[in-house]
Amino acid sequence: MSNHDDLTHTLSQELEDRAHAMDGSTLHLTDVQGRARSIRRRRTAAAVAGVAAVVAVIVPVATLAGRSGGNPAPAPAPTTQSVTPTPPEGSQPPPGVLDVSDLPTGAAPRMEYVTDGRVLHQIDGSTVDISTVYPVSSFVVLADGTHLWLTRDNQGNAYVEVQDAEGTLQDPVRAGGDLSVNSAHTVGAWVRPDGQVMVWNAGATEPLEYESPVGATDEMRMGPVLGDHCGAPEDSCEVYVNVSDPNADPSWQPWLVDVNDTAPYLDGTYLILQDATEGGLSIGYRKLTDFGSCSVLLGGGEFQGFDTCKHTLSSFSPDGGLILGDPAYHDGIGNGEIAMYDLESNLLFERHSTAKSQAFYPSAEWEDSSHVLAPVFQDGQWAVVRIASDGSMEYAVPPVAGQDVDNPFVLATGAPSVGD
Q: Which residues are within 8 A (CB) of 279 and not within 5 positions of it... i.e. 6 or more apart?
């Protein structure tokens, strides 16, 4: 082969290779779904940003002619300009590490969220000012568009302010520290400081005092809500409240409120009932110590479930097939660990904050059946991070400057219904 042929082949190959380098590739967050059991008891990194590297190659006319079958005179040696390819936007941290300092940016959250306690960000990208008496600290969205806003005054007292689908706000009423909602988003619930469970059914105009109060203490946390409607004699509505009593042994006890009774819930020997599905699965704490905890997944029939002292089993995905895990020992300003399990006890991934990253998040909510969203703080910035069941991460809301004790993001409580 002549020198001219060698040159033609070399440049042709280089041009083809560089053309291939210009092809973008899209890496998506993998959707891994667990298999939900039918057991009833009582119920992408980002597209490589379309950033194809700009390649400047000065190709001699002789080469182009040679590729088309011509026979030109020898050309001078080609001149090439060395270009450093533009790196893709963001990257994934090493496996197992919770580091959100340089993630790719993905789609906006597919659920509502609030910023600074006063601005609602809707799914279509629009924003609405919130005119509650007090700033919003958590909220629930019902299927008919009603919003249950949990707000707090300057002294930290909690209130529920209900806003119907037309935008009409009711006066604040005293509440405990959190809200709960059923999987269909047709029933929202909270507990008053006196232990009275309150429910709001989609389409209602007033809250309902549901059955008799639980044994009130200074600390009561909402558990799951099961059933599609509460209040009528035929309704199979169950509302769970976890009650703390430091003078009792054990110090935590879940209560069940339904049409039959209000009483301590003893099934499963739970200390705290975290979540439950309409199909009969439930998760919660069975052991709490000063150094950690142990959680269990229970079902029924032949379903064996599993327990773990490695993570807290926190909540089910909307389809009931996956379980979100957070630290077994909660301490400090927020959570520095996140994980996911399937129903067969397989750990799909886990990520930990490190001495270098020092990332943490106060809570996480399911966005769909294989992704959660979490407000994460790191290096003086807050971001809403989407985390997939394969452990990959991306920004759903890019980082903004902020203080570690002042999370600007409030995500809607309760995963969207399957099919939303």
A: 36, 37, 38, 39, 40, 43, 320
